[in-house]
Amino acid sequence: MQIIDVQATDVIQSMTNNDLYLYKRKNSNAAFRDLVAYDTYMQNSHKTGTVFVSRSKEDLTEGKGFIVTSYEALNTKYRKLTHWTPNIFRGGRYYDFQRQYIKGHEKENLKQINVIGFDIDTKNVDLYALFLACDELNLPRPNVLLETPRGYQGFFILDTPFFIHKQGDYKALRVADRIASNILEALSHYVPVDSNCNQFGFYRIPNDENIIYFDDEKIETNSLIEWSKAYEHEAKKQRFHVIYGGKHSSECQYVASDWYRALLQTRSIRAGEYAASRNNALLTLALANYADNIPFETAYDVLDQWNSALDHPLPLKEFERTLKSAYSGKYKGVQRDYVESLLENWTDGNATFTGQSGWYKFAKPREDRERSHYKEWEQDIVSYLEANTSAEQPFYSCSLRGLAKQLDMPVSTLKEVLKKSTYLYKKTKGKGRAAKTILATKSMLFNHLIVIRKKDDKTVQMIFTELFCDTQKLNNGHEKFKGFSTETVRDTS
């Protein structure tokens, strides 16, 4: 569950899985009887791990830091530290004790992996999109979010650590590394995570100012392993679509089809074949991209590679002319007869045409249509709210009739969009003509939480709980949205 009153020490212990020694081995401030009782209790314990810490980014860059083996030491030092290793190492040493040069924080010296971390090296990011991305990917949401001077860091806390053993040829390390890489790759399509960061190295240490989110319900390690396997399995099926920026087959009617892949793998297509020449093949492949809303530049890169690999490629000018023609909008779509002719002439015949029969009818531009799509209406509302709210004042107060007039939208449509949207928060006060509606985007609410967290507002985690509770309950007003001051509401009445 999301913790209301977050203590940095609790986050630190959760991230390290309580696997450090409780008291200092030397010079502890604990009572002697407590030390004796704890030593007796811990006689058969294997809590002999180590974390590395550093006082500043500059010290860390120079290789300077400290070796810490107990929570008592971390509890007394964390306020003056900036970086640490949340994953536990077997031990550490100093190159130079006086100058505090540390060694031993290599992957091979890891004792156990408790967390998988990621780094977002920019403040210009929609953090709520991170949670929506996890939901869409069927990936558990991160347990911890920290604000850093240049961006944010997040962590998935495992309920069962990966224990690293040299005898097993570091198999657990390879598995954890693979899962971490898959997580970074999956999230990179939604938020700008740093794919080059060392997932098991140094991160910012939680303190009393930088924790903006904490959920102490750890992630089942086995479920994360299964997620990683499923992600890789899907990635193999969609390997062809990596170049298309992660599009899935459900979003692409044509470029995900067997016939498209079969044509893209051909090398012997030549000129002079009626309805089955190189030009027809290129035009057909390009129209498939256009129909699936693939950007022109992306289609150009893919089809340029295809053309270059042909035994007799088209000249560059002819290639570009054909591609531009396909993206001109004058064609209505992929023609089935052309596809079948190309397949018959240049493939092994195993692939067959799938898709709309005959010419594919493109959706008209919005300005040419009498009715707009649901997502377009939703984006209109989001854009309007973003222009009229801020992180300091995230709410917009209005009447639905007045807002519908502002957006040139039917009131019934506005109500339907607000009812279905998972990206908008709505609460109505009063009844009939006197009713007022409070609206906000969840993204702006998330930014507001960061603002009030900096002000040390202890209700912030309560707000997180409300923000992430069931969307339908929120939208229907069955849950109270605690913690927000009425001063944060912009009233347009």
**Gyration radius, to the nearest Å?**
28 Å
Helix fraction bin = 25-40%
Provide the domain count: 3
Strand content: 5-15%
Average pLDDT level: 79
Task: Give an account of the 3D structure.
The protein has about 500 residues and is an alpha+beta fold. It folds into three domains: about 10-225, no CATH class; about 260-345; about 375-490, Arc Repressor Mutant, subunit A, CATH 1.10.10. It has 18 helices and 15 strands. The chain has helices at about 10-15, 30-40, 55-60, 70-75, 125-135, 170-185, 220-235, 260-265, 280-290, 295-310, 315-325, 335-345, 375-390, 400-405, 410-420, 440-455, 460-465, 470-475, and strands at about 50-55, 65-70, 85, 90, 95, 100-105, 110-120, 145, 150-165, 205, 210-215, 395-400, 425-430, 435-440, 490. Strand 8 and strand 9 form a beta hairpin. The longest helix is centred in the middle third of the chain and has 17 residues, at about 170-185. The relative contact order is 0.08. Mean pLDDT is about 80; it is low at about 240-250, about 355-365 and about 470-493. This is Replication protein RepR. InterPro entries: PriCT_1 (IPR014820).
